[in-house]
Amino acid sequence: MATTTTSHEMVRDVNWTQVVFVAAGVPALVLFSMGGISATVGAPAWLVWTISVLFGFAQSFTYAEIAGLHPSKTGGTAVHGATAWIRYSQILAPLSLWSNWLAWTPVLAIGTGLGAGYLLSIFFEPGSSILSWQVTLLDLGFVSEGLTLRINATFLLGAAIMLVCFAIQHRGILRTAQIQALLTIASLLPLFIVCIIPLLQGKVLMSNFEPFTPLATQDGQVVPGAWDKGGILLFCGGLFIAAWSTYAFETSVCYMSEFKNPGRDMPRAIIVSGLICIVAYIIIPVVFQGVLGTQKMLDPGIADGSGIGLALASMIDAGPIITKLLVLALLLSLILAIMTAMAGSSRTLNQGGQDGWLPRYLGYVNHHGAPTRAMWTDLAFNLVLLAMSNYLFVLAVSNCNYLIFNFLNLNAGWIHRLDNPRVPRPWRCPNWLLALGTILAYVNAFLLGAGANVWGKGTLLAGFISAALVIPFFLYRHYVTDKGVFPAHMQRDLILRGETTLGPKHAGMLPYLALAGGIAACLLGYVIFWR
């Protein structure tokens, strides 16, 4: 007999406008890697962001269609895509879910770490003992050079911020959406204002975009490079890491089981969120580059993200008081991103626990409809990540998983079309956009192979190893806990609306060929640039 999962139902509490506010933390993700991309790619960094966010917008239409096939499921497109792959592989389905979670959950650690750095930067001088104090717990140099686990002021302050975000989300998605709306006004508007003022003042200088070439290193010095193999590699590395931020508004579809009207609300939420992100991810990097210029971007504080707040304040010649207020506003924008990630990633874990992919305890939700056990799991995992000394490496490994998820789910769009042609869809993606999304799946696979190791030797390998960790979790849940039988409701969910039985696999060998093509595209990117 099939096993069942005991849990409360999610509450249908929100409409599309409220979910847009929940997803409003995504534009703030530009703060996570804008400095690192600018310090690596140079003047073309704004073009990296523009191309990447347009990729993300094109892909979102595929996500919108497959999410509409499962109006009762939460957890985002990884959950909806997994139902396409489950007919072809029991491992690929949980891999999609796991990779999506590993992509989203580090936002908590990286965001709180950067937020703590912002606060420390405005209240303490660079040489202060509180900034240099730390206790090293473990040397992780075998994973990445210089990587350690440590306890310092950033960790302690970041942990406090993380707990505040957890407390807010404990009361469910409606309360989260209400608080997110206030945070959006208090944080993102100042961020946009900081970018608009330099434009109006004429501080965005065309000379800061010249020479329009990637950076290079000569005799130990960073100099303008060329559009040669090395320059293209850095540009690919920029496109690779930017995807972690620019594609992320697909989190809008994480709330299918909490929308009041899923068919109406879901496509509106993801499209409006995408348009907001296009504006943010084009304007902010352009102004950042145009005002500060390449030389300023090479400042270590900008490269690691900790000095972004002070750099943005300098763009409007802010005095000490305004600088502190601005940095506090940027901290709120990071909290916005953290809450967006905590809401989305915990629901991915929750649905995985309900559907038999991940440990059963994750399937529980409290009486507010919040997946609290999944949230506690998120919290504990991110306290470990918060203790790591190199957040950009954590982000890069996380993004390896994100592009794995991205590949599987963009291909899930056409697999669902072939296997479930007659199933009614609340929103149907135009055929040309579905095809474009499939092409971009292979572009992203290529960027994974080419760009991952730009952010540290061993990043690509670490990404694949972290993705493979889902295998023992799934095997234990499926064969030990559930005795080899999926929960009954998960099997029912495979039979979509309008169908009475699970139909034949019309896609045949095509999913396996698609998977082989993705592996080949990744290997091609790696071989071209690293062999």
From TrEMBL:
Coarse class of the protein's main subcellular location: membrane
Subcellular localization: Cell membrane
Gene3D superfamilies: Amino acid/polyamine transporter I
A UniProt-annotated Pfam family: AA_permease_2
Keyword annotations: Cell membrane, Membrane, Transmembrane, Transmembrane helix
Membrane-protein topology: Multi-pass membrane protein
Chain segments annotated as transmembrane: 20-40, 46-64, 101-124, 147-169, 181-200, 231-249, 269-288, 321-343, 383-404, 432-452, 459-476, 509-529
Protein name: APC family permease
